[in-house]
Design brief:
Helices cover about 35% and strands about 25% of the residues. With about 230 residues, the chain is α/β, with parallel strands linked by helices.
Amino acid sequence: MTVLVVSNIDLSTNVQVMKPATFLGSTIKETTLNINNEYRYMKTGYYVSMHAEILGNRVIPSCENIIDSSRIPLLLLRAARAGVPTLPFLVTDSVKKIATEIGYPVILFAVNPFIYDGYKLANNKSALYRAMKSLGMNYKFAVCAQPLKGELFTIKSFFGKTTNQDTETQEIAKKVYATFKIPLCNLHIQKAIDKAYLCGLQPVSKEELSEQDLQKISKEVSLISEQGEHFGV
């Protein structure tokens, strides 16, 4: 199977790599592997997958998976159905509801796809108001709230693989990739009472990618190009 690799990242691989701008101006009809540090809606990574789908190409990741994985409630619902441990969550614009139904401390993610400000933690009512004002654009939009029961940390996931040695965390990364096929991402994981839970998925900045990371990504791209991988729409 011939795989067209489109990447905004400089890869050290023998595989021919096309820049996003070149691909977006082309009509190449080949199975497409879209490597991008950011796939959010209306960003370059999203448009590469959309262009591939318009051309009728099978592509990783698909536009549907890009949208679902970038909206925390959809991410958590689909991940849970795939067997990924998640915590209860609440989508609301009500401070009172979060304080009553979840309590403190609480993790907050934006729901509006045009807002990206990572996540915020709130340990009391005043912190919750500030977080919701920021993530909800002055309370105009809802947020996704989850209880904070343990340690919250962020890991880089490349094709479902991570350097984190915790087996539960590795299994979460593997299942999230199997479900959403997002090649590069940050996963927000919470470890509570010796159990790991998925809390969120967000882009990896280019500044976060070390030389070792680029080598790992390049190796995975080479393997997929050589061996092929199941590509779904």
